[in-house]
Amino acid sequence: MKHISNNFLAGSSAIAVLLVFCASVPGLLGIISYPLETADWRAQCVMQDQLNVGMVLPLLLVSTLLALKNKVSGKYLWAACMGYLAYTFTIYCFCIHFNEMFIAYCGCWSVSVFSFGYFLVMHQRENGPAIPMGLLKKMAVYFMSFAVVVAMVWLSEIIPAITSKRMPASVERAGLFTNAVYVLDLAILLPGVFITGMLLRKQRALALSVTPVVLLFFVLMAATVGYMSFQNTREPALRWRIAGVVTIFVLIQLLLLRNWQSATEKRMLLKSDLASAGLNN
Description:
mainly alpha, about 0% strand, membrane, about 85% helix
C-alpha cells in the first residue's frame, strides 16, 4: 500500500472528521431534533449520531495515525471506516428530512466515497499478498455464503410485503418511502461481497487486498446493529442474547482477520528468506 499518498490520507481524514463532527454532534446536543421524523426513525438517527462520534471518529483518527506510520493494519482500518461512512451517509442524505446539516451530510458522503474509491484504485496497482489456497477457498465460501444468507433474510421481508401489496414493517415504523438498507445491501454491498468471494478463488489482487477491509467493515456494522438492537429492546434476557450473538460474530471476524494476517506475514517472510538466499548464492 505504499502508493497511497500520506497527504491524501491526512487531508481526507481531517475533512471527514470535521464533517462527521458537524453532522452528528448537533443531533446529540439536541440542536437538531429531527422533528419531521417518526419516533422510531428519530431514535435511530440519534443512535447513529452516537456511533459516529463514539465509535467511528476515534477509529478513524487512530487508523489515520497508524496509516501515516505506514502500518498496513492502519490503512485497512482507515478504508473500512471510510466504507462505513459512505454507507451510513448515503442513508443520511436520502432518508432524513432536509435540515441545517444537509451540506455536512453531503460532504461526509462525498469524502468517504472518494476516499474508499481511491483506496480501491491504488490497490489495482499491487500484486496483493500471497495466501495459501486452502484459506482462500474458505474465505471465498464464507463471503459468498454471507452475501446469500443476508440477501435471503432481506428478501424474506420484502417478498411477502410485495405479494400482499403493503409496506414492510420497518419502512412503516420509520415513516419512509423505502428502506435504504435494503437498497444498499441488495444493490451494492452484498453483490460486492459475493464478487469478492468469487475473485478470491481466482487469486485476484484486488480481492486479496480488500478482504481485510471487508472483515473490518463487518465488525463495524455488527457493532452498529448490535448497539441499536440492544437499545431498542426492553426485555433484559433478549438484550443479552443480542449482545452475545453480536460478540460471537465480531470474534469470528477478528479470528478470520488474524488468520489472514498470519498467513500473509508467513508468506512475506518466506519470500524475503528466499530472496536473501538467492542473493547469497
